[in-house]
TrEMBL record:
Location of the protein in the cell: Cytoplasm
Domain (CP-type G): residue spans on this chain: 68-230
Molecular-function GO term, any one: GTP binding
E.C. number: 3.6.1.-
A Pfam family assignment: RsgA_GTPase
Its biological purpose: One of several proteins that assist in the late maturation steps of the functional core of the 30S ribosomal subunit. Helps release RbfA from mature subunits. May play a role in the assembly of ribosomal proteins into the subunit. Circularly permuted GTPase that catalyzes slow GTP hydrolysis, GTPase activity is stimulated by the 30S ribosomal subunit.
GO cellular component terms, A-Z: cytoplasm
Binding site for Zn(2+): C254, C259, H261, C267
Native species: Zwartia hollandica
Cofactor(s) listed: Zn(2+)
Keyword field contains Nucleotide-binding: yes
Gene name in the database record: rsgA
Protein name, as recorded: Small ribosomal subunit biogenesis GTPase RsgA
Cofactor remark: Binds 1 zinc ion per subunit.
Amino acid sequence: MSQQTQGRVIAAHGRHYTVELSDQTLLKCYPRGKKNEAAVGDYVEITRQGQEEGALESIQPRKNLLFRSDESRSKQFAANVDQLLIVIAVEPAFSDDLLGRALAGAWSADITPIILLNKVDLTEGLPAAQLKLAPFRKLGVQVLELCARDIESVNEVLLPILKGKTSLLLGQSAMGKSTLLNTLVPLALAATQTHSVALGAGKHTTTSTRLYHLPDQGGDLIDSPGFQGFGLLHLSREEIERGFPEFAEHVAQCRFYNCTHQHEPACGVLAALERRDIDAARHALYVRLLDAKTAHESY
Ligand SMILES: Nc1nc2c(ncn2[C@@H]2O[C@H](COP(=O)(O)OP(=O)(O)OP(=O)(O)O)[C@@H](O)[C@H]2O)c(=O)[nH]1
Ligand SMILES: [Zn+2]
């Protein structure tokens, strides 16, 4: 006998998904048909098939979907995300370009980005890292400083931010994302391994995206594998522009309604750039994103 019910995708494993029902039962679900490309965080309709399996019938409308795409492939990070936590560290050096792209990706999808500066116990390098982050603070991005290994620091800085929200955690390799996750959800990690064995899905690895419930109703945290690139080829020109919210007040001054803010006369954005009201590195990133898109489309 089959029975239709709702759940949330908490892990994606290529061909199948782990779906959690409201009573916390975990089911291994296969999509029915090819169109059901669910992402972690999606709310879905499923038909139960026995104790441990189900068919994924449909995906409920999403609040948002964070996505990345480059020439060779595209990848869904997660759906229905409230905030993007970008983990960087005092050491090793983080990529400005990648950080800028992550911010643009978040803003274009209406997701609030927050920067987590980890390893602040490495005090020697701290001032340089803070200086590098100054332009991002100026944009109004919240920057939280913490020490991922220190449970008190993590609890004090992060728990209030995470409560009641779905947060997506991203970070380049070696920034301390695994350490942070282990500090936040040691119990969830242990539990996941047990469930994985039960579901025959293999043990926990950081190669797949997963959603964890924080203890004491503290919110949900989605862990995504380390990201080396953050292509934004899927964004339209208008969406790329939304990734640069500091342009908005100046766009109103552009002579042409479809101004691309690259070489047009009487462009409000270029005028602001000239006056240094817009950061040159930010405008350069905007141009790189547009150029990559143009090259991709004419390919
Ligand atoms: N000093 C210091 N080191 C830290 C802190 N957090 C993590 N580390 C160290 O930084 C290194 C990288 O941490 P991981 O948690 O493995 O980094 P990751 O971002 O998950 O990296 P990948 O596993 O490559 O994706 C490890 O040697 C950690 O011990 C911190 O708060 N302070
Ligand atoms: Zn313009």
